[in-house]
Structures are given as C-alpha cells and as structure tokens.
Amino acid sequence: MSNSSQTTASKAAQPHRLIKSKNGSVKRNELRGKILVYFCAILIIVATLAITLFLTLKGLQSFVLNDVNVIKFITGMVWSPSGEGDFTYGAFPFIFGSFAITFLAALFAAPLGIGSAIFMTEIAKKWGQKVLQPVIEILVGIPSVVYGLIGLTVIVPIIRNHSSGVGFSLLAGMIVVGVMILPTVTSISADALKSIPSDIKDASYGLGATRWQTIYKVILPAALPSLATAVVLGMARAFGEALAVQMVIGNSKAMPEGITDQAATLTSIITLSMGHTTYGSVHNNLLWSLGLILLVMSYVFIIIIRLISSRRKV
Amino acid sequence: MNRRVTNNIATSVFVLCAVIMVATLIYLLGYILTNGLAEINWSFLSSNSSSFQAGGGIKNQLWNSFYILVMTMIFSVPLGVLGGIYLAEYSKPGKITNIIRTSVEVLSSLPSIVVGMFGLLVFVQYVGLGYSIIAGALALTVFNLPVIVRVTEDSIRSVPLRQKNASLALGITHWHTVKTVLVPAAFPGILTGVILSAGRVFGEAAALLFTAGLSSPNLNFNSWNPFNTTSPLNPFRSAETLSVHIWKVNSQGIMPDVLEIANGSAAVLIIFVLIFNLSARIIGGLIFSKISGKK
TM segments (chain A) (predicted)? Predict the structure, then answer.
C-alpha cells in the first residue's frame, strides 16, 4: 500500500520536477530513451545487412569453393547433385517452376482480387467493406500449411480425376498460391481505389457515364500504378511461398511439359533437401545458392515496386 | 451493345468476384472444421505424438507452438515498438531514415523460408544453439519485427498532434511525452496489431523447419526446471510446432492415420488463429470505445 501511494505522489510531483531538473535525472532519462530507440532502429539495419551478407556469402560458396559454373547452374536442365555417376547441377527447372507458379498465381489472383476490390469500393461501399474486410483478414491469417493440406486433399484429387497426370501439378500450385495471395492483392487494390479523389468520379458520372464506363475509363487508369504494385506484392509472396507449394506441386526434378504436369520450385527443393544433406557438402552448398536466388528476387521485387511507385508521382 | 447492358454485366462480374472470395473462405473454414473437429477429443490434445502407430496426439506440438509464440513476442514486441517510435517520432528525413525504411521493407518481403535459412546459418550453426526453441524464436523475431514496427509507427502517427503538443507545452520532455502520452494513446492500435501478428507467428512453419527442428522430445510436464532436457520450459531443446507437425506428417508421416492427425491439427490451428483474429477485433473495439467515450 505504501508503495502505491508513493508512486502516486511522485507522479503528481513529476511535472514540477521535470521543469526544475536539478539533478539532471530528466536529461538522463531523455538520453536513455533516445539511446533505446536509436539502438532498435540500428538493429533493424544490422539485421537486414546480416541476412543479406550471410546468405550472399554462403550462397556463393558453391561457385567459389566447389567450382560450380554459374551459367551452367542457372541454365542447366539436369539436377543430380548426389548419388552415382556424373554430378550435374542444373537448376533451371526449379527457377522456371518458381516463375511459372508466380505468374500463374498472379493470373488467378489479379482479376479476382481487383474485381473484389472494385466491388468493395465502388459497388457496395458500406456493407461490401463490412463483409469483405474480415474475410480478407481471416484469409491472410490462415497458415500456409493449412492451404497446402487443403490443396493436397481437395485440389490434387480433383486434378487427378480430370487429367492424365497424378494430380500433383503446376495447376494445383497455381490454385493454392493464387488463393493465398488473393487477400494481399485485394486489400492493397482496395486501398489504392479508395485513395482516388472522388472529384474525378463525380465528374465522370456528371457527364452521364455509367458505372462501368467510369470504372473502365476513369478509375482503372488512375489507379493502374497502385494496382500494379498490389499484383507485384502478391507475386513476391507467391515466389517465396514454400510449404504449401511443396505439398501440392509434386517436386519432380524434370521440366514440366504442361500445366497438369509435376514440377518443382526453388523453395520446394530447399524445403525437401536441406535436412537430408550434410552441411558443407556440394549438394548442401547448392541449396544455399538456390536460397540466394530467392533473396536476390525479393530485392528485385522491391526495386520493381519502387519503380512503379516513382512513376505514380510524375 | 447497349451501355446499360454492359454496365449490368460488369456489375455482376464484380459481384461474382466478391462472392467467389467469400465462398472460398466459407468453404475453407467449413472443410477444415467439419473434417477436423471430429478428430479433436481430449486424448488427441493430451497425448504424445506417435511416429508410426495410429492414435498419436499433439500435446507437445501445441505446447511448443505457444512457447515459441510467447518467446517470439518477448523479443519482437519491445524491439518493434521502439523501432516504430523511432520512425514516428525521432527520425529526421534523410539517408539514415531512408535506409531504415528500406530495411523494414526488405525484412517484411523476405520469404519466410529465407528467414529460416538465415536462422539455420547464424543461430543454429554459428552461434551454436542447435535446433532449439530459442533459435526458432529468434528467426520468427526477424519475421515479426517489421510488422510490429509498421503497426507502432502507424498507431503513433494517428494520435492527434494536439495531444503531443499539449504535453510538450507543459514542459514535459520528448521521451516522457512519448512514454506517457503517445504510447498510451496509440496502445489500442499497437495491441490489435500485435495480436494479429501473433496469429501469423502461431501458424508459421517454413521459418521453423530449419531452426526449431522437425522433432520434439516427449515432454515431462512434471519437470519445470528449464535445464532438464525433457522440461517443457527448456529453451535449448528442439521443438516441433503444430504447423510444422501438419507439414511433417503429410510429407514424411508413415502412420496409418496421417490424414486424421493432419485434419485435427489443422482444425486446432485454425481455431486458435480465429481466436487471435476475433480477440484483436474485440479488444481493439473495447479499448477504442473506452478511450473515445463512444458506444
């Protein structure tokens, strides 16, 4: 009890003490706070630099220490880094698989996401928002392994029954990842559409344009750079998605010949092989090189987004 | 074609998009809950997992998920809130602030598997923590930090400037104003963001595969000495979480009831994620109405 009364007393006296800082404790407090805040800010930079540096150095080891040819690594078609016979380290099928999944998923999610965003912002402004906002939040919150599990138990069997393949396929990956990036694309698109000044919409309606004409001729062109950002952000997420893709894509090491064919992505190969290879071996070092490609690509996506948004300001 | 007809067709296409999205969510939740709830019973929740026989439970995985979540939050919330305070209050426009903003952007766009690989390289190998709860929590801190930074910055920036100026005008110093005026006023926003991020951390698996590991010792829930290898509190033991468990039983499991375990675990996972989501909304709403006096 005495403790709490003391703190109230000191709290009441604080403004007084703050103004007449005799003993310099205020200055010290101020400095301590500043140091804490600056320390955390610097820590964020250090963490980013550390991730970039460590993964770059580790990812380059296979080229520097193990003399793997970079060009052959990126363009080679055959991946057999261990076992009997000649070792070849061609990662092109995985690079292709990652890009294929990314673009296919964007193809799936972009129209649906932007369409839903238009529904939220232009058609049912009040209740559309009320219904879709929680839907987006829950879809974002569903863990990727759960998406993978549903892909595995629902989508893969459907594809198996309707095609000649085994079901594990690019198509299954496209649907699973497409649904996963859908909420990202929708919510960023909706923000973009909301930020368009209503003057230009009113002007269009005032000229007698229908809603579709206004959307098509006025709103979409004005929002295009921001909508592109939304899609690129979704693609960045698709490129790095690991477990859900790994569960449905089949992880075949050969190039896929069609959309219902099995494939593999950079992430799925890393997920599968990292635990089974000896740390420091060529095979293991190559996995870190695949990881380096992922790291480089996430920088590339950031640069693309910067370029798009710098065009928006002009 | 008549422009009204085109307009109506377009409108129905947009409505269809929204309907597909809502239907997807309803289907997903319905599928997981109808398939999973049947598997959930007390023995499923309270028994050890089994590696090849049927009837394994998820007791240890559930505990590990929460333990890693709590530890991640202990690391990432203070760091993230202070980082957010820097960006909202202390940063001056310039190179350093730009670098920090870019860093936050890079961190938040890194694929979680890349964060996991960094954790494997630095925390597991170089620092020598091995596959452990603490390595997993550190990796997830990297993953969660940018989220908390952004939420904090946004919440502090949305505090009316009048409140800050009033405090400064009373002669209260900057840091003291941050502590006693800005952070309390921004608290509902920060708390909501933290709870939502907790749901994300709870379900994350890719960053944990190589840091917290794919296996877990059978824990002895009578031994609370953190240095015992089977103690639930030991932060240096390997720990498979619930979401990692779902992935593992599906890709490597040889038990006859893989599907039942996966469905049950997914339902438990989804229920907790929904609880995090709902409580973020409810708590955010409650505190908002308390502070603003609105009903």
Answer: 35-57, 87-114, 135-159, 171-193, 214-236, 286-308
